[in-house]
Design a protein that fits this description.
Butyryl-CoA Dehydrogenase, subunit A, domain 3; single chain; four-stranded antiparallel sheet; 52% helix; 3 domains; 383 residues; alpha+beta; Butyryl-CoA Dehydrogenase, subunit A, domain 2
């Protein structure tokens, strides 16, 4: 769907992806039975509400609250740039249930239905690209949500749920970028073969060939990263770092391919001419490609780099600590071995001296049977 319509895929991709993954991963059996069949059939459209006016890349700083009041939670706060919000029938919402716990520990995940009193939507956003992917604010004003809507039935694990959901979402966005970039490359190559200047197709000019080759190589690299990360995720492995790497590289790659495609189309790349419709024009590619680095959860590629770096530092620290522990253990073993060898040699020397009765040695004596036995046992241990 990224190849044909990146904006329309948002409706299906968000519904089947981050909008419902929270229930699939951590939801109770009752929640799964209630929502998943309707989401799969299209009867219900899902949305994922994490980003806030002051919480984008720093998702753990969200301020939307969910205060327990009997059998309900009372929600207050605003979510921003929420995909599918104008169409959604339910929202997976992250809210702070324990204000005393700062950061991720006080965040919980909920399923909030669209017709819940106190929930309202802002006006649809006017984006620079992918205008067919509808987004808007989601506003909670004393919105009372039943306790049964708490995902998993446990408070304080919502942020972990969100991060697991976003791993899949990042791979999804990366795959969309590959599809869109492949479409732009195909259109640019077709145009380069048809467009003639100086008596030959512009595809024969080396600068055009270089742009096409760079685009092909980057698309292939992105596809390999996504397949590798997706395969590891299917095996049940943690792919937080791999998903961030794939999404960061693929989304920036898509922007570079869009820029090259516009250049190859020349003037037609800047205008959508009715008489000569061009599949690659500025509003359709460059601006739409600029949307992908911030999705999902409004984290830009620079923020993604921080996530990758943080994960890399964590892995490096673990490795250094492990290597340090091994080195300490090895040094301890060496010291123990040296002490044992030194003791065994000293005891064996005393035994030989006693057997020969060397008068020049202090404390020379005839070894007792117990001493001989100890010496033999010591030599066996040394061997």
């Amino acid at each position: 769907m990224g190849y044909t319509s990146p904006a329309f895929r948002s409706l299906i991709g968000t519904n089947n992806g981050i909008g419902s993954s929270g229930i699939i991963i951590d939801g109770t059996e009752e929640q799964k039975q209630k929502y998943l069949p309707r989401l799969a059939s299209g009867e219900l459209i899902a949305s994922f509400a994490l980003t806030e006016p002051d919480a984008g890349s720093d998702a753990a700083a969200l301020k939307t609250t969910a205060v327990r009041d009997g059998d309900h939670y009372v929600f207050n706060g605003t979510k921003r740039f929420i995909t599918n919000a104008p169409l959604a029938g339910m929202f997976t919402v992250m809210a702070r249930t324990n204000p005393e716990i700062k950061g991720a520990g006080g965040i919980s995940a909920f399923v909030v239905e669209r017709d819940t009193p106190g929930l309202s939507l802002g006006k649809p956003d006017h984006k620079m690209g992918q205008k067919g992917a509808l987004t808007s604010d989601v506003i909670f004003d004393n919105c009372r949500v039943p306790v049964s809507q708490l995902i998993g039935g446990v408070e304080g694990v919502g942020f972990k749920t969100a991060m697991k959901v976003l791993d899949k979402g990042r791979l999804h966005i990366a795959a969309i970028c590959v599809g869109a970039a492949q479409r732009m490359l195909d259109d640019a190559l077709r145009y380069a073969m048809e467009r003639k200047q100086f008596g030959k197709p512009i595809a024969e000019f080396r600068l055009i060939q270089a742009m096409l080759a760079d685009s092909k190589a980057e698309i292939y690299a992105s596809r390999c990263m996504i397949i590798d990360a997706a395969g590891k995720r299917d095996e049940g492995r943690n792919v937080g770092t791999e998903a961030s790497c794939a999404k960061m590289f693929a989304s920036e790659m898509c922007g570079r391919v869009a820029d090259r495609a516009v250049q190859i189309h020349g003037g037609r790349g800047l205008f959508h001419l009715r008489r000569h419709p061009c599949p690659v024009h500025q509003g359709q590619t460059v601006r739409s490609a600029k949307v992908t680095p911030t999705a999902p959860a409004a984290i830009h590629s620079d923020g993604r780099r921080c996530l990758v770096l943080r994960a890399g530092i964590f892995v490096l620290v673990i490795r250094l600590e492990y290597q340090g522990a091994l080195a300490t253990k090895e040094r301890t073993s060496q010291v123990t071995w040296c002490r044992r060898v030194s003791y065994n040699k000293r005891e064996a020397f005393q035994l030989r001296s006693s057997d020969h009765g060397d008068p020049g040695l202090p404390n020379a004596h005839v070894a007792s049977p117990s001493t001989r036995q100890r010496g033999r046992a010591t030599r066996r241990r040394c061997c």
